[in-house]
Design goal:
Length: 230
């Protein structure tokens, strides 16, 4: 497959399908943009497909129905155009600062939405507020989520996710035409889901996600420990 297309798509693919062997849509809990859209702690195939569909649409920057090298160029041009607020063909320090402020504002909105979803999830009696017991349950769940995030490590995602995503995307290109079509992408999502749904329950649980992470970490450690090829 075209190396340029692979490089472009790997990061977004990792977010859709998991980084470095991490479970599909591994965002735990009812976070905005996470696969577990109803916040019940389980990821169904429908939720996984919906999440992956959003990612495909973002990766398919020119809307031609496939992910290829042309999408990389289109996305780069789009990012530059959004940053170049006055359209003069250059990005100034002020424009960079404005871009950062906008990004921080979006993050704040996501945090507020996440809190609202968490409140709704743990307000078991529907009173509109949290009792001491409900608040304790929410805190416990949040600690577990943060603990899993530290276990994955953001650095590992950056170092290992790109190559893993590239390999996954290359496998998705089953006809070898240098592009990944929507049917190819969907087939990959379904295959990945089935592999992670180890009990064939039709959902991916937190335990299955954690098991996938542990396996990924073990494989990574084995690769690091292996002597270099001569």
């Amino acid at each position: 497959m075209n190396k340029l297309a692979l490089t472009f798509s790997s990061a977004a693919l990792a977010l859709a399908l998991g980084v470095g062997g991490i479970a599909l849509a591994a965002q735990d809990g009812p976070r905005p943009g996470g696969a577990d859209s109803d916040g019940d702690g389980l990821v169904t195939l429908a939720e996984a497909k919906a999440r992956a569909a959003e990612r495909f649409e973002r990766m398919d920057a020119n809307g031609d129905g496939v992910i290829d090298a042309e999408d990389r160029a289109a996305r780069q041009a789009g990012r530059f155009a959004r940053a170049d607020a006055d359209g003069d063909g250059e990005i100034t320090a002020a424009e960079i600062a404005a871009m950062r402020e906008a990004r921080e504002a979006r993050r704040a909105e996501r945090r507020e939405a996440r809190l609202a979803r968490m409140m709704e999830r743990f307000d078991s009696d529907g009173s509109g507020g949290l009792s001491e017991a409900e608040l304790a349950a929410m805190r416990e769940a949040r600690v577990e989520m943060l603990g899993e995030g530290r276990g994955r490590g953001m650095g590992h995602a950056r170092r290992g996710g790109g190559m893993h995503g590239m390999k996954m995307l290359a496998r998705a290109d089953t006809d070898g035409d240098g592009a990944v079509s929507r049917p190819e992408f969907d087939a990959m999502v379904e295959a990945r889901f089935a592999a992670l749904d180890t009990d064939a329950s039709g959902t991916i649980s937190a335990g299955e996600r954690e098991a996938a992470r542990a396996q990924s970490k073990a494989r990574m450690m084995e690769r690091r420990a292996a002597p270099p090829a001569e």
